[in-house]
Write a structure and sequence with these properties.
The complex is a heterodimer of chains A (932) and B (136).
Chain A: E1 4-12, H1 28-51, E2 58-62, H2 64-70, H3 73-96, H4 101-123, H5 128-137, E3 141-146, H6 159-177, E4 183-185, H7 195-201, E5 206-209, E6 223-225, E7 231-234, H8 237-244, H9 263-266, H10 269-272, H11 304-333, E8 341-347, H12 358-370, E9 374-376, H13 379-385, E10 390-392, H14 416-435, H15 440-461, H16 463-471, H17 475-497, H18 503-512, E11 539-543, H19 555-568, E12 572-578, E13 586-589, E14 592-597, H20 607-629, E15 634-638, H21 643-653, E16 657-660, H22 665-669, H23 675-690, E17 693-696, H24 699-709, E18 716-718, H25 725-729, E19 745-749, H26 758-771, E20 776-780, H27 786-795, E21 802-806, H28 810-819, E22 822-825, H29 834-841, E23 846-849, H30 852-857, E24 865-867, H31 872-884, H32 886-903, H33 906-931
Parallel strand pairs in A: 1-2, 1-8, 1-9, 2-3, 3-4, 4-5, 5-7, 6-10, 11-12, 11-15, 12-14, 15-16, 16-17, 17-18, 19-20, 19-22, 20-21, 22-23, 23-24
Antiparallel strand pairs in A: 6-7, 13-14
Chain B: H1 4-7, E1 16-21, E2 27-32, H2 35-51, E3 55-60, E4 66-69, E5 74-79, E6 87-96, E7 99-109, H3 129-135
Antiparallel strand pairs in B: 1-2, 2-5, 3-4, 3-6, 6-7
The chains are: A alpha/beta (932), B alpha+beta (136).
Chain lengths: 932, 136
């Protein structure tokens, strides 16, 4: 077994610099130079090593933009012309330097080199990619992918676009290489927590990070990222320094060729003019006659023989240093099951393009490693053999200046992102909308336009442009390309949104950017949201300030049950609500789309202003939901706390508002007694007036709204609340835990507020407790009256027989209802009274006040019992009557249970709600028709 | 290429507060006041809405809250001096005598070993509406 392993990883990337209308574009030369100086020389090295049966394994990432350009026939044709021109120049140089033997030898060298490159390129059918793929098939190379357009993932605005960068990269890799990649080079090593999930979706096994990302953990053992089976490999800082460092790095050796002395710049224009840019701009020709020499301007002529000797020395030094490192690691760790892995990643273009002797150095390193104690491996080969790894969570990082996002996000280029992020959102929204369209003719053109929009947005995301702006190198080109893609994307988005795509212009764009021809739009869809292919009959935006797990009153439960039932009935419901404990900004729960906003901080005495802030946030989120998932037909608002957002969204998008008024401010307070109450009253009134239809839960509430707000009878609809029998059965095993028949339990559940009348229940207790010494009360729920009620129990001398159970879970509530002899709801004001309905559904004998909705639910003596609100004597007599006649009590309870099952079901309520929706839409249609 | 039109973020008309971590101590913040704020805040906060200087409030658990003045109703700011690995709440709004009025809110975690989670806020889901009423 070898002492350790070395993974040499080269990252080959160029931005997409194909220019349809400018074959002489300066930037296309980047590709030609990289082909001549890096990709083809490296291929020659790899193929020679294979031919000579030197065992080696190397990893090469090829970015999808580069892969696409390498496979582009038109670019191949242009490259051949470029090579022919360079060969012509070498011939000319042989003549010019005939009397300078050393330079003439160099000119001969270049003539041979470029002639060989042309021969090599043509003899392989101009297919560089196929040669790399062949090396992978023979087990010498592992080809991995990168971001589709080399987008720097930490500054991309949405997960969908990060997913697309990765997914489209893998597809492109497979289409061009013939197999899915096992690893990925994150563009600029840019990692953001959560990216690992996207990699796992594509079955990617590993990626490489800069050494500081590993913190205190060793970079010589891969880490498994928490929650996935994706490995992070840490870059070895010592290997990096030896090759990359401008001070001590190998490429700065005085004997190596000097990059910056090219005859394209050195010779007279009259001589070289035909070989630089037609506009006269000086460019590199690839013919360089000098060596690094030293720091100064004076340069000596290049000596290939001396350079070869230095390559030998540097290769030897590199391998020896790695072996010494492994020895040092073994001493620290004392050996182990897993040999250390040194990951040495570099930009591929360093080898050959910047460092002329780089490919020879790679070859010498491979030959030396073959006989060393160090195994040359690919990451996937290592991980296959040693899959065990420590698990860790890592934070954002990159390999750029400072180690984070500074190069791609700073004062020079920060202006990009407000525009880019909005276009990313528009793209995702447009894709989502298109997924729902069913007209085939329109869809074909729309899909083409969407693919082009995706190309333009993703090309704008390329890290190269932001880099150029920061470094002020080719800044104008970076800004120009970025702006071009942003502008194209914006115009395309407008055309798609207006359903007026210009087929001619689209075709022009497609011709000029022939990249990702089979781009899969589903990569741009959220992972946890699969939109229905069919247009739902109705799409409703529901606003509620509470939704489980954020449960304040009965509203959360009501909105949860209603939205779920509407979804079952085929309505697409999007609930806009507040964050709860541990909730996400978006979730798809039980068929319901739930979007949540952070709740603003509450300042004392500013409840209404607080609600305005909440409504600003709900409105912004509502707008985003409409733009992402629309079109919507309706807005459904629950109570005054969401009135402002409902009315703003209605005006903004021309949608009718249906509101459910669960209770009124007037009813809650038995009148309006304060400025706060008056403000709420006005908001409530405005919502009721401006709503197209209003739903209430009882006839008494209908009357209340007519009297209070003058709401027209024809737009008021009574839809009772309902109970979920399945939910009421949860946690109940059927066996009562009651201690004995003599023990009587009276149960109340609900908020501890004055209007619920718990104080009346306590006041009634002494008389029936005297008759039944083992009888007691259980009060479940919380609220501001708790202390007052505890004081009252003490004053009545019954504190030992009253249990304040506090907040109880649904399961605990169900068990308490099952075990109760009587459930009492002595409300003074009750628009509906869902808890009474739940008690009846659970089979508990139920006593309620003759008020509001409660009085409408219970038929006295038939399916429950009614007592006068606030009358403790009446309540006491009723409880004694029930205790005395358990058989009748049970019969009445059973009838109550049957009644609730038959009349108060969520499917019935949902059906009624849909009927109200339809009515609103019909009214709306008539209004619009009438105004035409 | 004419970039003038692109640099005007207000043409989008949306309500937005967005943050990105730049490095271990700096963040990028972008805000834009849109239709919802204009419609609702202007009705509820009257002149205050027109006159107040907009601010960013950046608060974490570890150190003092930072306030950064915003020159316009939309823009980009770079905020420095934050703690590595910490989670920050970033809000946009204005300061008043009795506290900060927060129009938009988001959060951002800086790179580095994770520490300093936000202090839990007094959440309205832990108190009843009647407590809210009573406090008002």
């Amino acid at each position: 077994m070898k002492k350790g392993c070395l993974a040499l990883v080269l990252h080959a990337h160029l931005p997409y610099v194909r220019h349809e209308r400018a074959a002489w574009a300066l930037e296309e030369r980047w590709l030609y130079e990289a082909l001549s100086e890096t990709y083809l020389p490296l291929l020659q090295v790899f193929e020679r090593l294979r031919k000579e049966r030197v065992p080696y394994s190397l990893t090469l990432s090829i970015s999808p933009t580069l892969l696409t350009m390498l496979r582009d026939e038109e670019l191949g044709e242009r490259y051949v012309k470029h090579l022919q021109k360079t060969i012509e120049l070498t011939e000319k140089e042989r003549g010019r330097t005939a009397n300078e033997p050393i330079v003439r030898a160099l000119a001969d060298m270049y003539a041979d080199q470029y002639g060989g490159l042309l021969n090599s390129y043509e003899s392989s059918g101009r297919d560089v990619v196929a040669r790399f793929a062949d090396l992978q098939r023979s087990g010498h190379l592992e080809l991995i992918t990168c971001g589709a357009t080399h987008g720097f993932l930490p500054t991309i605005g949405s997960e969908e676009l990060r997913r697309a960068q990765i997914g489209i990269a893998c597809d492109t890799h497979e289409a061009m290489i013939g197999s899915r990649p096992r690893g990925i080079w994150l563009p600029e090593c840019g990692y953001l927590p959560g990216v690992e999930r996207l990699l796992a979706e594509q079955s990617l096994q590993y990626f490489v990070l800069d050494s500081h990302s590993f913190g205190s953990k060793s970079v010589y053992h891969p880490l498994l990222i928490n929650g996935t089976n994706v490995y992070a490999l840490g870059r070895d800082p010592e290997s990096t320094e030896q090759v990359w460092s401008s001070q001590i790095g190998y490429p700065g050796d005085p004997h190596y060729r000097e990059y910056y002395r090219d005859i394209g710049f050195d010779l007279e224009e009259s001589y070289i003019g035909n070989y630089v840019h037609p506009s006269g701009i000086r460019v590199n020709t690839g013919l360089k006659y000098f060596r690094v020499t030293g720091q100064g301007a004076h340069k000596e002529l290049y000596d290939p023989q001396m350079a070869r000797q230095r390559v030998e020395v540097h290769a030897e030094h590199f391998v020896r240093s790695r072996v010494e490192k492994i020895d040092a690691l073994a001493q620290i760790a004392g050996g182990g099951e897993r040999p250390p892995l040194i990951t040495a990643p570099f930009d591929a273009e360093l080898f050959g393009h910047w460092w002329y002797e780089g490919p020879s150095w790679v070859e010498r390193v491979a030959r030396k490693l073959a006989g060393s104690e160090l195994a040359m491996v690919t990451p996937s080969g290592y991980l296959r053999q040693y899959p065990q790894a420590e698990r860790a969570a890592l934070s954002m990082s990159s390999w750029g200046r400072g180690g984070y996002a500074d190069v791609w996000l700073n004062e020079r280029n920060g202006w990009i992102y407000p525009h880019l992020h909005r276009l990313e959102e528009r793209l995702v929204n447009a894709v989502r909308r298109a997924e729902r369209q069913s007209q085939p003719a329109r869809k074909a053109l729309t899909e083409r336009a969407l693919r082009q929009l995706a190309r333009e947005v993703m090309l704008a995301e390329a890290s190269d442009w932001a880099f150029m702006i920061t470094m002020e190198t080719t800044e104008a080109y970076g800004v120009g390309r970025l702006s071009e893609h942003l502008k194209n994307a914006e115009r395309l988005a407008e055309q798609i949104e207006a359903e007026r795509v210009s087929a001619e212009w689209l075709a022009e764009l497609e011709r000029s950017t022939p990249i990702f021809p089979d781009l899969r739009l589903d990569h741009l869809l959220p992972a946890n949201c699969t939109p229905d292919r069919q247009q739902p009959p109705l799409r409703v935006l529901m606003l509620s300030w509470e939704f489980p797990p954020r449960t304040i009153g009965g509203l959360a439960r009501h909105v949860y049950d209603l939205s779920r039932e509407l979804a079952r009935a085929g309505v697409e419901v999007h609930v806009i609500t507040c964050q709860g404990e541990g909730t996400e900004a978006y979730a798809h729960l039980a068929g319901v789309h739930v979007h949540r906003v952070e709740v603003p901080e509450l300042q004392e005495g500013r409840f209404v202003e607080w609600s305005a802030l909440l409504n600003i946030r709900l409105s912004a989120m509502g707008r985003r939901a409409i733009e992402s998932f629309g079109p919507f037909q309706l807005i459904h608002a629950h109570d005054w706390l969401v009135a402002e957002s409902a009315l703003w969204l209605s005006a903004q998008f021309g949608l009718p508002v249906i509101s459910t008024i669960h209770a009124t401010e007037h009813g809650r307070n038995h009148g309006i007694h304060s400025e706060l109450q008056a403000q709420i009253y006005q908001i409530e009134r405005r919502l009721a007036e401006r709503s197209h239809e209003v739903i209430v839960c009882s006839a008494s509430m209908r009357q209340e709204l007519q009297e209070l707000y003058g709401v027209a009878a024809q737009k008021l609809h009574v839809l009772n609340n309902a109970v979920d029998r399945k939910a009421l059965a949860e946690g109940v095993d059927g066996r009562s835990r009651r201690a004995s028949e003599r023990e009587k339990v009276v149960f109340y559940v609900g908020r501890l507020v004055p209007e619920k009348g718990v104080q009346v229940l306590l006041a009634s207790a002494p008389s029936w407790m005297n008759r039944y010494p083992q009888a007691r009360i259980i009060i479940a729920g919380i609220g501001p009256m708790l202390a007052t009620l505890q004081d009252q129990a003490r004053e009545l001398g019954i504190e030992g027989r009253v249990e304040f159970a506090g907040f109880v879970t649904d399961q605990e509530r169900n068990r308490l209802l099952r075990d109760a002899d009587v459930a009492v709801f002595p409300s003074l004001y009750e628009p509906f009274g869902i808890v009474a309905l739940e008690a009846m559904a659970a089979g508990a004998p139920t006593v309620v006040s003759r008020t509001g909705g409660l009085a409408e639910i219970v038929e006295h003596g038939e399916d429950g019992w009614l007592v006068e609100p606030g009358d403790s004597n009446s309540l006491s007599e009723t409880i004694l009557q029930l205790f005395a006649d358990p058989i009748t009590c049970q019969q009445v309870a059973e009838r109550g249970q049957q009644k609730v099952i038959e009349r108060y079901s969520w499917p019935a309520i949902a059906e009624g709600t849909i009927a109200v929706y339809r009515r609103a839409l019909q009214q709306r249609e008539q209004e619009v028709g009438g105004s035409r | 290429m004419e970039l003038g039109r692109y640099l005007r973020v207000d043409r989008y008309g949306d309500d937005r507060l967005q943050t990105l971590a730049i490095d271990k101590t700096r963040i990028w913040v972008h805000w834009a006041e849109g239709g919802a704020v204009e419609q609702i805040a202007s009705r509820y906060f009257l002149q205050e809405w027109e006159r107040s200087t907009r601010m960013l409030r950046i608060s974490g658990a570890a150190e003092q809250t930072q306030f950064v003045e915003c020159q316009a109703r939309w823009g980009v700011r770079y905020v420095d001096g934050l703690s590595p690995g910490a989670l920050y709440r970033v809000e946009y709004g204005w300061e008043r005598s009795d506290g900060f009025l927060s129009l938009y809110e988001t959060s951002v975690r800086l790179p580095g070993a994770e520490r300093f989670d936000l202090l839990p806020r007094k959440r309205t889901d832990r108190i009843s509406t009647y407590t809210l009423y009573a406090e008002s």
